[in-house]
């Protein structure tokens, strides 16, 4: 096996369509793959995806090689097949990494790969694809506590010279803090289609009055819609009310301008600080306020305050809202977990520009989310980013969409 500088790298449609993109869909290929699986002289072939897009259910760990940390089977929990995989770091090595070398190159040019993952801590699983020259594309998903379930992985980095049609190695890894021993449970290596054309969503969190006073004129200059997530209990009756949150009139003006008014919970506080019943009240109270005020469309969408959640939060959001937006990582594929769809939080201009360029190149969906615009730097970052976005929109390389577009066009159902 080729021993590249793995540590340095780590730190730096339909199921039929997915099968075709991976070069695994034809009957001849399937027969060859089955032959390879019985060949004791080489690793087993990567099977084509099943109806849910699953490529590897990890029931056979013989295809994977441990590079660092440790790997063991976990038979008590699984979402695909009969077992999952536990990766662990130790105090001497802050990285766990397993590698699968493919018998034949596969085409991953129009799909994102992902995993079902779970952890007791906040962890960023890393899923990397290498071509034969060592070029890499890097998928990531940041997770907090929660049960084992699929996560949406986005493209966080890519070598410009990578041959995505000729992928030869798959790596799964995560990093832990110094002197820490962390655990990551994973299962269900899957492939999901990425939209052919680049899509961008613009969002604002927290309900600060500057979203209307500073953000709305910028949106109107470019004629872009946005989603505004408001803490409904904190919306002020008028300008005379104490505080710096949006007033009822400002929320109405944003709605009239084409923005979607959505939920940031009732009080905008981190939900996993509350017990399950109080979390439920925060979610339903906010939704009811939106519906009562005539913002029915936005009442279907939720943003996690500070991007935080626990397992109860995820289940409640899945039961209450159509889509929940969490944090981190651009260039997303179709939605595989609607309870936590990722976006970029308060991105620096340079980072946003790089991610917009990658979205235009690869396709996929990138969501830009901003907080308060009360200081000049935040306003400048938004203006510069939207100016850069406009260049791509004018060239037909990117399109600005809204959550209802995401929900109606880009949810993966495996069919």
UniProtKB/TrEMBL annotation:
Keyword Signal recorded: yes
Tagged with keyword DNA-binding: no
Localisation: Secreted
Biased composition (Acidic residues): 28-58
Single GO MF annotation: hydrolase activity, acting on carbon-nitrogen (but not peptide) bonds
Disordered as annotated region, ranges: 22-58
Pfam hit, one: Polysacc_deac_1
Domain NodB homology: 198-415
Major location (coarse): secreted
Entry GO terms, CC: extracellular region
Biological processes annotated in GO: carbohydrate metabolic process
Domain of life where this protein originates: Archaea
Keywords: Signal
Listed name of the protein: Polysaccharide deacetylase
Origin species: Natronorubrum tibetense GA33
């Amino acid at each position: 096996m080729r021993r590249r500088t793995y540590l340095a790298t780590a730190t730096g449609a339909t199921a039929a369509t997915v099968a075709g993109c991976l070069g695994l869909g034809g009957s001849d290929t399937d027969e060859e793959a089955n032959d390879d699986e019985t060949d004791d002289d080489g690793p087993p072939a990567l099977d084509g995806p099943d109806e849910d897009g699953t490529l590897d259910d990890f029931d056979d760990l013989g295809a994977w090689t441990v590079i660092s940390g440790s790997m063991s089977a976990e038979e008590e929990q699984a979402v695909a097949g009969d077992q999952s995989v536990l990766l662990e770091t130790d105090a001497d090595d802050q990285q766990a990494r397993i590698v699968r070398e493919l018998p034949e190159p596969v085409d991953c040019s129009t799909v994102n790969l992902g995993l079902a993952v779970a952890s007791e801590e906040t962890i960023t699983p890393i899923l990397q694809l290498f071509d034969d020259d060592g070029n890499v594309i890097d998928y990531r998903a940041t997770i907090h506590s929660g049960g084992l379930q699929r996560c949406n992985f986005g493209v966080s980095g890519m070598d410009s010279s990578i041959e995505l049609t000729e992928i030869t190695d798959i790596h799964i890894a995560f990093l832990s803090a110094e002197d820490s021993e962390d655990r990551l449970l994973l299962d269900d290596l899957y492939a999901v289609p990425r939209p052919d054309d680049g899509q961008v969503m613009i969002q604002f969190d927290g309900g600060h009055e500057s979203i209307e006073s500073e953000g709305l004129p910028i949106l109107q200059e470019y004629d872009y819609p946005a989603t505004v997530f408001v803490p409904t209990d904190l919306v002020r009756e008028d300008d005379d009310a104490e505080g710096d949150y949006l007033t009822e009139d400002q929320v109405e003006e944003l709605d009239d301008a084409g923005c979607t008014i959505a939920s940031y919970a009732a009080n905008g506080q981190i939900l996993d600080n509350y017990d399950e019943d109080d979390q439920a009240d925060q979610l339903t109270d906010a939704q009811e306020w939106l519906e009562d005020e005539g913002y029915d469309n936005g009442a279907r969408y939720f943003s996690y305050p500070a991007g935080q959640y626990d397992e109860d939060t995820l289940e409640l959001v899945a039961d209450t809202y159509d889509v929940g937006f969490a944090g981190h990582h651009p260039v997303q594929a179709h939605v595989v977990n609607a309870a936590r769809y990722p976006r970029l939080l308060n991105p620096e201009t340079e980072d946003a520009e790089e991610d917009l360029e990658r979205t235009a190149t690869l396709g996929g969906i990138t969501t830009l989310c901003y907080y308060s615009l009360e200081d000049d730097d935040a306003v400048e970052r938004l203006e510069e980013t939207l100016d850069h976005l406009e260049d791509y929109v004018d060239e037909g390389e990117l399109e600005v969409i809204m959550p209802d577009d995401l929900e109606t066009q880009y949810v993966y159902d495996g069919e």
